[in-house]
Amino acid sequence: METPIINTRKKIYAVLSTIISDDQPLDFLAYPAANVAFSAKVKGIEPGKSMSYNYQEWYFG
Description:
33% of the residues lie in helices and 7% in strands. It is built from 1 helix and 2 strands.
C-alpha cells in the first residue's frame, strides 16, 4: 500500500531525473582515465573502476 507522500515523491523524482538527463553537463556514466601511483607501503589496493575503488580494504604494511 503506497501513501500519497510516496506517490508524490515518485512523481518529483521522475521529473528531476528527466531534467538531469536532458540538461546534464557531462555523462555521469563515464569517468576520466587517470594514472595513479601509491606508496609500496600501502597494501590491499586492487585495480578498479576509480582511484578510490575498495579503499576500505587498504592498509599500511
